[in-house]
Amino acid sequence: MSRVAIVGVGQTRYSRESGRSEWQLAVEAISNALTDCGIDPGDVDGLVRYSYDNVDEAMIVRSFGLKLRYYSQTGFGGLGAPATLAHAYAAVASGQARVVVCYRSLNGRSTTRYGRAERSLGTGGGDLIATGDRAPSGAFAGPYGMLSPGQVMAMWARRYQWEAGLTEDELAAAMGRIAVDQRAYARANPDAVMGGRPLDQAGYLAGRVIATPLRIFDLALETDGAAALVVTDAAVGPRPAVWIRSAIQGLIPYAESIATYGELRNGPTYRSLGSRLLQDADVKPADLVSASIYDATSVSVLLGLEGYGIYPVNGAARAVIEHGIGPESPLPVNTSGGHLSEAYVHGMNLVIEAVRQVRGESMNQIPRSGPVLVASGPSGLVLAP
Amino acid sequence: MSRVAIVGVGQTRYSRESGRSEWQLAVEAISNALTDCGIDPGDVDGLVRYSYDNVDEAMIVRSFGLKLRYYSQTGFGGLGAPATLAHAYAAVASGQARVVVCYRSLNGRSTTRYGRAERSLGTGGGDLIATGDRAPSGAFAGPYGMLSPGQVMAMWARRYQWEAGLTEDELAAAMGRIAVDQRAYARANPDAVMGGRPLDQAGYLAGRVIATPLRIFDLALETDGAAALVVTDAAVGPRPAVWIRSAIQGLIPYAESIATYGELRNGPTYRSLGSRLLQDADVKPADLVSASIYDATSVSVLLGLEGYGIYPVNGAARAVIEHGIGPESPLPVNTSGGHLSEAYVHGMNLVIEAVRQVRGESMNQIPRSGPVLVASGPSGLVLAP
């Protein structure tokens, strides 16, 4: 692939009550990202946002006086995080735009709480589900009360348990290890909303059950905040450039939200997409230095580790029980604390942490240099110095 | 620009009552487009849709069993028509995808009637307006009853009349000429919903006033139907390839929906974007053989003719009164009948007609070969053989 780089990142404070509009948060995050790379807003000619974002392109154009020549939206919620960068890559590599800003802004706690299915209730149901086909999801799952991501992903966890032949205790041990290791990362990250609260396995097990077998610590936080990234065709600004080595934005058929008759995210379609992503970057799983794996719930991390070939199918749980995902593990994951312990910016904060790892600027810096994976279901990026 | 081509087009029958779901219509249009170029659905790896479309990517993936690696959405209604092709261009030129399908499907008469502001009422107001900033549009215009595109564009027409120093009769003569000439094109087009109904200037003037100074013949039809196009990196299939020579997707600040304090679509930002589009294609306005100019209302055509430099600012009305936009005019426009007389597929049928002109397959074929313009406000394409 040609040379397209992430040169700037920016974010707001992450909180439970921003006291500001999502528009204000988006503008602050974008301003910070542009400052990070020293690019003038007048040079921005592309924008990529989530279709779910309430801050549309015209609002950003107005706030900064942008002159756009490319803008796009990525659908399906959290799948959109790496995909925004994939679109920016396409725009820059094709010459459609020169400087593209990707952003996500949400008052996910003080305004619309996804965990309470407030978004899906507000829009007719079902389209919150990342890989789902809107109509059947709403029609089949909604009437049975499966409205929030946690309710849906509890079914993923149960099915994974069954497929992998895990006991209830083993599943809890694996998911708990993810929650505990991500919390440990958060302890060193001053931006992390949960940084002040230690968590161990006993604390995890004592957590309130939200949707069996998921406990409260298995679920993404609900937070307010925004995050933004700047993409262009050269290394500019004071920070090390982070090159987009490969990008893929998959979407598979029959990925029903209840996931009891579709393909789990460690299935053959996912593995084929993940394998292609790494091949396109000329990277093997063992080459990866760290990874950001979308953690709407802890089980998503287990599935992602298998989907992208880090561990064999049905092998992630036992590997995680043994090695964890901490700094000494074979592949450190979600080193900012992730959605479980840093903040929930719908995947965008995970992309920023991957950038920081490549730059060598993470609060939990992995001391090796090399490619970093960003994975969200069937969409992903490989970033490298 | 590198070699990216539109190789297939497809559509459904255009009607006032399709009797089928938008999903069914989309699948039929896409099937027809793939048949048109002989590409197997298994080779499609990209999709681009309007954010307004009720048929999301997952529904198309399911119907065809697609394996995607790129998909995007274009916002702001009709601006998305050329922009879908711009996204497909970016995906293919950058190597993100190889075969991209762009589509639009809507039961615009039998289900949701935009002319009655049913969409904007259903979604909170204001976001129907193509170039508007959602929040202010809804906040300032909605309470005064400006809910439908026709109500908004009536203000554009009045302001244009004032800027260009036109009398009431001159404005009506210019807008009427557009309606009459597009109807004449529709007479030769068996797909056109209004093909069976002749219209002359007297008939136009006798039309019911919808929103002063717009009469019923100034407004886009409300129809059911779908349209799709296939984009790839080579000339494939039995039809002549139509190369995308340039693409631009603009969005300007302060383009308020009521347009009384923003920039009309013949203003300096639009002209600058239009000029850049043509320069990128190495084309002068006089080189253009025909044009598809987004005609939500007839006045949009006048503004587009000026925005893209075909006529001088405030000069289009008098030029159109004198020469029209028919086959003998300096630049034939909307040669299928357009939204006013063929059907309203939200700009996508206009792109298909531009493809047909480049191929030499239009029912109103302009007998010269050369570049064809597709323009929708600040977004556009130049297509060429």
List keywords for this structure.
homodimer; 385 residues; alpha/beta; Peroxisomal Thiolase, Chain A, domain 1; nine-stranded mixed sheet; two-stranded antiparallel ribbon; 11 strands
Brief characterization of the structure:
2 copies of one chain form a homodimer. Chain A has 385 residues and is of the alpha/beta class.
Which superfamily, in CATH terms, is the homologous superfamily of chain A?
Answer: Thiolase/Chalcone synthase
Helix share, percent of chain A: 25-40%
The N- to C-terminal Cα distance of chain A equals 14 Å
What is the overall silhouette of chain A? Answer: globular
Strand element count of chain A: 11
CATH domain topology of chain A:
Peroxisomal Thiolase, Chain A, domain 1
Radius of gyration of chain A: 19 Å
Task: Give the second-level CATH assignment, the architecture of chain A.
Answer: 3-Layer(aba) Sandwich
Oligomer designation: homodimer
Biggest interface goes to: A-B, 50 and 50 residues
Residue-averaged pLDDT of chain A: 91
Number of helices of chain A: 13
Adjacency order of strands in the biggest sheet of chain A: 3-2-4-7-1-8-11-10-9
Reported for the largest beta sheet of chain A, the result is: 9 strands, mixed
Element pattern of chain A in H and E: EHEHEHEHHHHHEEEEHEHHHHEE
CATH structural class of chain A? Alpha Beta
